Amino acid sequence: MLRISTRSSTRKYVGVLCAVLLGGFVLLKELDLVASAHLNYAVIQLVHNNLQISTSQAVLSFLLIGMRYNPRDTRLIRNAGFIYLRRGDMPLALEMFDRGLRLNPTDLLLHFYNGNALYQTGRDQKAITEWSQANAGRYFYNQGKSLAGKGLLREAISSYEISSKLEPDFGGTYTALGDLYIAEGRKLEAIEMYQTALSKEGLNSLEKTLIQARVVYYLGDISGSLRLYRLLVAQTPPCIPQNSKQFQETAGLRSEALRMIGVIEYWNVGNQVAGRQALREAVECQPDYVWNYIHLGDTYRNQQRYHESAYWYEKAAAAIPHSEVPYLYLGINAANQGLFSAALSYLFAAQEINADNAEVWYWIGLVYWDMGNLPLAELYLKHALQIAPRSEYSQALREVERLKK
């Protein structure tokens, strides 16, 4: 009969078995799926709140018991560190990750989680180094894309900026950053990002045409950009049928080209019918994209048809409820009608979603100015200028300061 020869070996196997059986089954769903997805610290905090403190404490106890009898098992160390990270106990998380990396310096997940912990403690450059060891650049790009799609612009910009440091030769990251900078009114930074993207890898000919059209447009060459956008529409298939593979690959490109043709035709060329038609086609082509609705609503607000403009802004809010942009434009729409209380309600709702959108602060300042509350107008305009140094913000602030004297 086979016998275990020593008491210590028995204790070792029992300890590891307890950790695997009691902690492992819970971790299989709660932790290993998280690890395989390479989720960053924000997702760990925001998405996985279903991992309750009581559960994590029980799992942690079993992990620590297992580590007593198998102190070189980096899986136990890594998952214990993850729980400390999840609970916000950064010193212990960092201690666990450092211990694991000394045992296994090639463990990509340990580098990734160590980067998360370092980032949360303000050691950004060390975090970037750790994430680069984990080859996490494309992960942060996809994370930024997901967040931007939900309208979470601040978080998306943060993810894209990390991705650009980890994978500096990937053009898609700079294009995405340019788009978000435009959304926040940072035109010069956006142009710089677009021009950087054109010099990088990973973009096909259609994507390059689109970026060139953006750069030309924001540099002021309206006819040149219109020509490039029309070329892009001619090179992409119609948006019907929407279930075709070819459509799925080019819908976003075609939608943007149609949207910009509509904007240019309506606002720059003065062809209102052609402009609105192109914008409606953009909505049909990509009905879940917020700016298609916003630009279409603007054409009605420009004609003081406020009920119709509100209709399209509300459609935008329904399409992407986590974006501050529809509420910003609903606030502007109300302010244009002199409905200042309603305007502030919408604008504060936008501010609650994204407090870093300078345009929201700017319009709150303008509304307070119209209401005669110059101190509050000055406060909000100053903050808008701190976020984005735009000329219209500084001009409005100077006028408010002059009126206060």
How would you sum up this structure in a few lines?
The protein has 405 residues and is an all-alpha fold. The chain has a domain at 8-135: Alpha Horseshoe (Serine Threonine Protein Phosphatase 5, Tetratricopeptide repeat), CATH 1.25.40.
Q: What is the secondary structure topology, with strand pairs?
A:
Elements lengths: L6 H31 L3 H6 L6 H17 L4 H14 L2 H14 L4 H13 L3 H10 L3 H13 L3 H14 L4 H13 L3 H12 L6 H14 L3 H14 L9 H25 L2 H14 L4 H12 L4 H14 L5 H12 L3 H14 L4 H14 L2 H14 L3 H14 L1
Helix pairs in contact: 1-3, 3-4, 4-5, 4-6, 5-6, 6-7, 8-9, 9-10, 10-11, 11-12, 12-13, 13-14, 14-15, 14-16, 15-16, 16-17, 17-18, 18-19, 18-20, 19-20, 20-21, 21-22
Helicity level: over 70%
Give the N-to-C terminal Cα separation: 98 Å
Shape: globular
Write down the CATH topology of the domain at 8-135: Serine Threonine Protein Phosphatase 5, Tetratricopeptide repeat
Described by its quaternary structure, the protein is single chain
Query: β content, as a range?
Result: under 5%
**Mean pLDDT across all amino acids:** 82
Radius of gyration: 26 Å
Using brief descriptors, characterize the structure shown.
22 helices; 0% strand; disordered N terminus
Describe the structure.
With 405 residues, this protein is mainly alpha-helical. It has a domain at 8-135: Tetratricopeptide repeat domain (Serine Threonine Protein Phosphatase 5, Tetratricopeptide repeat, Alpha Horseshoe). The protein is built from 22 helices and no strands. It has helices at 7-37, 41-46, 53-69, 74-87, 90-103, 108-120, 124-133, 137-149, 153-166, 171-183, 187-198, 205-218, 222-235, 245-269, 272-285, 290-301, 306-319, 325-336, 340-353, 358-371, 374-387, 391-404.
